[in-house]
Every structure is written in structure tokens, then in C-alpha cells.
């Protein structure tokens, strides 16, 4: 029977992919994959033909009889036919390295994984040895994709050099930022790449145990990743002799419990230790004293899942892509009120305007774009006059923003930025771990002050107070929750002052 | 639809014992208790404290720190409605108002007939297809109030 591919990604499921798969099952061999990341086309059905995979979408279960009658299983013409999947402009314009397999392979098939370039990176790392592997990661210029952009190779080297009879690799899959879903998509669509990346990190730093801390809001990612761990273990990819290296490395997944601050690496470690997720003062760095006091690498899902292709293709190939000090590719997530929402992996340097208007197609509502928030709840709101900003860590910092984990949330002209600024303070108050005063108390004061401003009470004085409060939070907070909340608040105030007038 | 057991100290002790030997066992234990009983019953707190050699206050502190852990069992169905920015950009605030009015409950509340518990959630990773929700763990996208009502009816 002809093979058809339908995503089992949560976004595809939410749009009815299971019903479409069931309707096609009597007529074709249905392979469930991750998502290609073109979420406005989900459920997307791809048919294997001699000319390559032909895509149809978005397919409603009611469309299936008509599609079959039109000869879909041989790539027949139909209003929903999008042609060869890889030629769809949204995909053709990307540089897919981290997400090369996502949407293409059966996420739990080791054969698929191997057939698409899997495990070559790990094999090379074993042959090259620990020091050379870390050197390759350093040379690639890879920086952490969780938000802070810290060079991954340096983190690994610090952990490798640290004394300790037990070391850990901790993968941060807490992905709490609104507008982001790259970690989720990767764990649902290509979990072996994360396992391979963690194994490489383990072998090169001397860590024998890995933890993946996944947020509880991701039940599908949790299930797929646990299933992938079982497959990998049964095949000897994990355990006492990883891939014939003679070294031990195993991975366990742990599930969070709905606390945003547990995405902060030291709060995450506390949570893994079974405690309240309160932020630790640094130093000591986790690389020196991390989980249970042992040297620990904490890396984001995307950081770790990118390592295998760097090892496989060499650091030069990765480092050749990007701009400035931002090397390689970034899976950019287009979200909110956007026409073509989904995941777009590209080298750093694409302008924000190209991402929002050209690639994202502007708003879903068809109204003008008024603001975009980049980098999650701690990220700044950008107005269209700053859309020439290139997607790059330093360029965003220079404009008082951040790229964070790569999420872009689009708002149309019905947005009220004073309301968004208040929400930022409310979120901070709800999620503060309570360890330091500027964040714990300041966020509640900020909320109250915002309420006075929108009520028209002493607007000038209260606006000055709000700015002062933001200054205190920015410089007096222990971690970036309290420290960065001023970004959305001040950017809203600076770029959209009209929303703060009574 | 999840069916929860009523609290039973022996059963709780078994659940705790199954995880107590793990590194940093408290979160796995609390998740397992909530999975069985629909919440972390207050009668279970001293049992957890004893097994992990912690004080009751410490365990209480852990349970209350995390938004996910409930102190009472939910209704028959749990609707986790996203309130975060990307869903706000598509009218999540208005949607939430409509859902609260239709169900006659506030956040964390359960309808009078015990059918639905409404929980706020801050992002489900469905931000490209919002407004989004999870109904008993099933993802829902591009929501409006009618779609939610239909989903609740077919879940009943
Ligand atoms: C409040 C807060 C929330 C965070 N949430 C996440 C998260 O969900 N995922 C993540 O990878 N990093 C998150 N971070 C960043 C982590 O602290 C840390 O820098 C990161 O996990 C390191 O991995 P990387 O170097 O691979 O980016 C957060 C930081 C803060 C202050
Ligand atoms: S800034 Fe907020 S979240 Fe961070 S340590 Fe201080 S109180 Fe905790
Ligand atoms: S913001 Fe609602 S799913 Fe992410």
C-alpha cells in the first residue's frame, strides 16, 4: 500500500490529525511523524510518490473521500494539493539542521533515525575522544538556545574539568515561554536526536546520568520521549556500554509541576532534588556544584539536539552560518495572531520584519501588525519601526530586547500595551520564587501602579514610579525573572505611550 | 475520563514506597499520588514526610509551591485553558470570560454538577494555533466558546 505521512505532533492532533489518519488507514499505510512545522496547514497529509512526497493540507476528515476520488494516493490534483512538500516556500527557505528529520521520520523508529544521518555524530565523538569532542562544540560557536546564549563548549569544558566522582547532564525541557514550542516539537518529532546529544555530552564530560526535566503541560512530548528512551535502551544506545564505547550513560525523564521559574537552571536543579523550585545564588556554578552538589551541565533541548549534526558535519559547516557572534541556525517560532504560524529554522540574521510579514504573512485577523513580543514573557514588545532588527542575540540586546528561546508573538492593532505590561507584572507576581524582594514585592507593586495608571490616577507620577520600580527590579533581582520583567513593561511604555494615557 | 480512587492510607503508602528510593523522590511521589487520588490529600502529607525523612512543613511547602498539585479532587473533566500571551493575541481573555460565564465557575472552580473543573494554564506549546486548551489531556486549538462547549458535551 502507498505510504502516507500524518503528524502526531500535539498541534496536529489539536486540529484533528487522528481522525484524518483513521479515515485514511483502510486505503494506505499511515506513518505518524512529527510536524513539519507548517501549523496552518495541519493536518497535513503527505503521500509518498516517485516524484517525492506530495502534500495536501489542511485536510479535514470530511475532505478525505474527495481527496481519494481525486487520486491523492498517486499525487492527484486537488484544491488542497500543495505540490512537493519540500518545495513549499515556507520549507524551501529554511536551513534545517536541528529539525532536519522532524516531520520526515517516524519518531520512534531507530531505522529511520539511522537512515537519516542519526548516530554518526555520536560515533565520531566516541572515535575522537572527550577533549576533541568538546573542542568541536567550542569551534562550532554553538550558544545555549534556552535564552541566555552562553557558549555550550565552555560550559561542557568547565564540567569536564570539575572534580567529582559523579556528574550529571540535565536537559531543560521546561519550555515555559509563551510563543515557543520548538522543544515540544523536537521531543515529539525527533526524540533520538536529544538522546544522542545528551549521550555525547555525557561521554565528553564524564557524566553517567542524564535527567530531562519536562513540563507537565506537555503530555504528548512526555509520552513520546519516554517511549524513545525505552527503544534506545533496548538497542544498547543507553546503559552500561553506550554504543560500544565501554562508557555508561543513561537518561531518566522527570516531569515538572507547573512552575515557570523551574525553567531557571538552578530552580530546576532544586526541583529535580525534590525541593521547592527556588533559585540558588551563583556562584557556585552548576558546572562546579549542580545537581546534588555534583558537577552538572544544564542545557536546553535544542542546544543538546543540535550537537549531533555539528559532530557529524564538522564545526566549520555550522559556524559558517549566521551573523556576528550568533552562529548556526535558530528554530524560530511564529505564534499568536499570525497567518503562517509554525516553526522556521534559519541561520541567524533574518530581519524581524521579514519573519513577521514575509514568512509569517502578517496577522491571522488580516488587521495591521501593531506589536510583536520576542523571547517569551520576559521579552520586549517591538513596534514595526524596529522591524529592521536582525535575529541575533546582540542586535536584540542593543535594542533593549532579547531573542530568548526564539518565540515571536504577533499582535494586531486591537492590542492594548498597557494591559500587556500589567500582565507581565501579574505573571511575575504569580511565578516569583519569592527569594528576593525586588521581584517578590516589586511585581505586586508594579501591578498596583499599572492599575493606577490605567485608572488615570496621577499618571505622570505613577509612570515615573513604575520606571523607578523597573530599575530596581532590573538591577536588584537575583535571576532573570525579576530582572527581565522590565523589558516587556518598559518597551510597552517607551514604544506605545499612547496606551498608557487615560 | 479519569476516575480517581478515594483516599486510602495503605494504597498511599504503596505508591510512596514505589518511588521513595529514587533520587529527589518528592515530585515523582506527589505526581503519583495525584494520579491515583486526583489530588495530594492532606492525609498523605505526613506519610510522604516520614518516607523521605522530611518535616510535614517541608512537604507542605513543596506541595503548595507547585501550581499543579491540587488539595481536593477535580470534577469529572479538567479543562486547562491557556491564558498566556500568544493566546491573548487571539482573544484568549474574551474567551476565558465567555467560558467562565457559560460554566458559571471561576478559575480553579468546579461546576455545581461536578462535571468540569476550569484551570488556567500558561502556555501549552500550541501558540501557533491558539487559543488553545487541554481537555483531560487532549489538545484543542483555534478555540471559541462554542467549540469548547461542543468538546465538553462529547466528552461527557
Ligand atoms: C525565569 C527563567 C525561566 C527560564 N526558562 C527556561 C526554559 O524553560 N528552558 C530553558 O532551556 N531555559 C530556560 N531558562 C534559562 C536557563 O536558566 C538556562 O540558562 C538554560 O537552561 C541553559 O541552557 P542553554 O545554555 O542550553 O541555553 C530560564 C531562565 C529564567 C531566568
Ligand atoms: S528574581 Fe524572582 S524568581 Fe528570581 S530569584 Fe528573585 S524572587 Fe526568585
Ligand atoms: S500561549 Fe497559549 S499555547 Fe502557548
Give structural notes.
The complex is a heterodimer of chains A (502) and B (156). Chain A is of the alpha/beta class and 502 residues long. Helix content of chain A is 41%, strand content 16%. In chain A, the strands form four sheets. Chain A has a five-stranded mixed beta sheet, with helices on one face. In chain A, helix 7 packs antiparallel against helix 8 (152-161). Chain A starts with a strand and ends in a 7-residue tail after the last helix. The relative contact order of chain A is 0.10. Chain B folds into two domains: 9-65, no CATH class; 77-155, Glutaredoxin, CATH 3.40.30.10. Chain B is built from seven helices and four strands, in the order H-H-H-H-E-H-H-E-E-E-H. Chain B has helices at residues 9-19, 26-37, 45-52, 56-65, 85-88, 92-103, 145-155; strands at residues 77-82, 116-121, 133-135, 138-140. Chain B is elongated, with a radius of gyration of 17 Å. Classes of the chains: A alpha/beta (502), B alpha+beta (156). Chains A and B meet through helix 1, helix 9, helix 11, strand 12 and strand 16 of A and helix 2, helix 4, helix 5 and strand 4 of B. Flavin mononucleotide (FMN) binds next to strand 9 and helix 20 of chain A.
Amino acid at each position: 500500500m502507498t505510504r502516507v505521512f500524518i503528524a502526531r505532533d500535539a498541534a496536529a492532533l489539536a486540529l484533528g490529525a487522528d481522525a484524518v489518519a483513521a479515515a485514511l488507514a483502510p486505503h494506505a499505510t499511515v506513518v505518524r511523524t512529527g510536524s513539519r512545522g507548517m501549523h496552518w496547514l495541519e493536518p497535513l497529509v503527505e503521500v509518498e510518490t516517485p516524484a517525492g512526497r506530495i502534500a495536501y493540507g489542511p485536510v479535514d476528515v470530511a475532505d478525505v473521500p474527495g481527496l481519494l476520488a481525486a487520486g491523492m494516493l498517486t499525487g492527484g490534483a486537488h484544491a488542497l494539493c500543495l505540490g512537493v512538500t519540500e518545495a513549499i516556500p515556507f520549507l524551501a527557505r529554511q536551513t534545517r539542521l536541528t529539525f532536519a528529520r522532524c516531520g520526515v521520520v517516524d519518531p520512534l523508529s531507530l531505522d529511520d533515525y539511522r537512515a537519516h544521518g542519526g548516530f554518526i555524530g555520536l560515533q565520531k565523538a566516541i572515535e575522537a575522544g572527550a577533549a576533541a569532542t568538546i573542542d568541536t562544540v567550542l569551534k562550532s560557536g554553538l550558544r545555549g538556545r534556552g535564552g541566555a546564549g552562553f557558549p555550550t563548549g565552555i560550559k561542557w569544558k568547565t564540567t569536564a574539568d570539575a572534580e567529582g566522582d559523579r556528574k550529571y547532564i540535565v536537559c531543560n525541557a521546561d519550555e515555559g515561554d509563551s510563543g515557543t514550542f520548538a522543544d515540544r516539537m523536537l521531543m515529539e518529532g525527533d526524540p533520538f536526536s536529544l538522546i544522542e546529544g545528551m549521550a555525547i555530552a555525557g561521554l565528553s564530560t564524564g557524566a553517567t546520568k542524564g535527567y530531562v526535566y519536562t513540563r507537565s503541560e506537555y503530555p504528548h512530548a512526555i509520552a513520546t520521549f519516554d517511549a524513545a528512551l525505552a527503544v534506545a535502551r533496548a538497542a544498547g544506545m543507553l546503559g552500561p556500554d553506550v554504543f560500544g564505547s565501554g562508557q555508561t550513560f543513561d537518561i531518566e525523564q522527570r516531569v515538572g509541576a507547573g512552575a515557570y521559574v523551574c525553567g531557571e537552571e538552578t530552580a530546576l536543579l532544586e526541583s529535580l532534588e525534590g525541593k521547592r523550585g527556588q533559585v540558588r545564588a551563583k556562584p557556585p556554578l552548576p558546572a562546579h556544584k549542580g545537581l546534588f552538589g555534583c558537577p552538572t551541565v544544564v542545557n536546553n533541548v535544542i542546544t543538546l539536539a543540535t550537537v549531533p549534526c555539528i559532530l557529524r558535519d564538522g564545526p566549520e559547516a555550522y559556524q559558517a552560518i549566521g551573523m556576528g557572534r550568533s552562529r548556526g541556525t535558530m528554530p524560530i517560532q511564529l505564534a499568536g495572531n499570525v497567518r503562517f504560524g509554525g516553526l522556521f529554522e534559519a541561520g541567524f540574521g533574518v530581519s524581524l520584519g521579514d519573519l513577521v510579514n514575509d514568512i509569517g504573512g502578517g496577522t491571522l485577523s488580516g488587521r495591521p501588525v501593531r506589536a510583536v513580543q520576542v523571547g517569551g514573557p520576559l521579552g520586549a514588545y517591538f513596534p514595526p519601526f524596529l522591524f529592521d532588527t536582525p535575529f541575533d542575540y546582540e542586535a536584540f540586546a542593543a535594542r533593549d530586547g532579547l531573542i530568548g528561546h526564539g518565540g515571536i508573538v504577533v499582535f494586531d492593532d486591537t492590542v492594548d500595551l498597557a494591559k500587556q505590561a500589567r500582565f507581565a507584572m501579574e505573571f511575575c507576581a504569580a511565578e516569583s520564587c519569592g527569594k528576593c524582594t525586588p521581584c517578590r514585592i516589586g511585581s505586586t507593586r508594579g501591578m498596583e501602579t499599572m492599575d493606577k495608571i490605567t485608572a488615570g490616577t496621577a499618571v505622570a507620577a505613577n509612570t515615573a514610579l513604575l520606571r523607578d520600580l523597573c530599575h530596581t527590579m532590573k538591577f536588584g533581582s537575583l535571576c532573570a525573572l525579576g530582572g527581565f520583567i522590565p523589558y516587556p513593561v518598559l518597551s510597552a511604555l517607551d514604544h506605545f505611550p499612547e496606551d498608557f494615557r487615560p | 475520563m479519569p476516575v480517581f480512587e478515594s483516599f486510602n492510607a495503605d494504597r498511599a503508602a504503596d505508591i510512596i514506597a514505589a518511588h521513595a528510593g529514587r533520587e529527589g523522590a518528592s515530585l515523582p511521589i506527589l505526581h503519583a499520588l495525584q494520579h491515583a487520588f486526583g489530588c495530594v490529600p492532606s492525609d498523605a502529607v505526613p506519610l510522604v514526610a516520614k518516607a523521605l525523612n522530611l518535616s510535614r512543613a517541608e512537604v507542605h511547602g513543596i506541595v503548595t509551591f507547585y501550581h499543579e498539585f491540587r488539595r481536593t479532587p477535580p470534577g469529572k473533566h479538567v479543562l486547562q485553558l491557556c491564558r498566556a500571551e500568544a493566546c491573548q493575541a487571539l482573544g484568549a481573555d474574551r474567551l476565558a470570560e465567555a467560558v467562565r460565564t457559560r460554566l458559571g465557575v471561576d478559575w480553579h472552580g468546579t461546576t455545581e454538577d461536578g462535571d468540569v473543573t476550569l484551570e488556567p494554564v500558561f502556555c501549552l506549546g500550541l501558540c501557533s494555533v491558539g487559543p488553545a486548551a487541554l481537555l483531560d489531556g487532549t489538545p484543542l486549538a483555534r478555540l471559541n466558546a462554542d467549540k469548547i462547549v461542543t468538546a465538553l458535551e462529547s466528552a461527557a
